[in-house]
Amino acid sequence: MKASSTKFNRPKAVIICTLICAISAALTLALAGTIHLPFFWAVFVIQAIVSAASIYLLEPALLNERMRPQGKDEDRFGRLIVTILYLISVIIPALDVGRLHISDTVPLIVQIIGVVLNIIGWAGIVWAMRINMYFSSAIRLQPDRNQQVITTGPYRVIRHPGYAFASLGFLGQTMMFGSWLGFIPTILLIIDFIYRSFLEEKILVDGLPGYKAYMARVKSRWVPGLF
Q: Which end of the chain is more exposed for a tag (fewer CB within 10 A), N or C?
């Protein structure tokens, strides 16, 4: 079956994603004990918009792979760890900013910059996924999907734009929340992304024809000329 013919109910997916964002926002604000947190609202509105846009911009085969990856995940607990760290990165700021006020002294200008970084990060992830049909949520080789080395779009400059843009998005989100304590789980999340990128690269070098040559051409993993 061709990737383009894979069945995927886009309107239903948009409704589900919107409901998830709405429920997440409600639970987070309930945890905070107040609805008067405009940057928190902005985080979930951006998530809902990006999710809906992704559903219509990305191929059904990729959306299915993202939600239900096939084959063996080489980072067995990786997605669970990412989920837990993400939840903690939301829970801590909600409690801090809404109730505890331990470190909710992030300047307004930093929060505004966070909005910009958050949008750039999520837009970059969608760009990378639109270019890379093999952008799975699992770390695995995909011979079942005729995986090939991707060398266009952001992959012309860095080898792991997904992790790079995701880190930027999560960093911006934490800046928006306005809690210094919130940076702790976010930094741990970025460290986990670094680990995952090295693990993924090892698997690709060993099992994907042409990837070693691609590494020789594109030197940077995340940041051009730096890392």
A: N
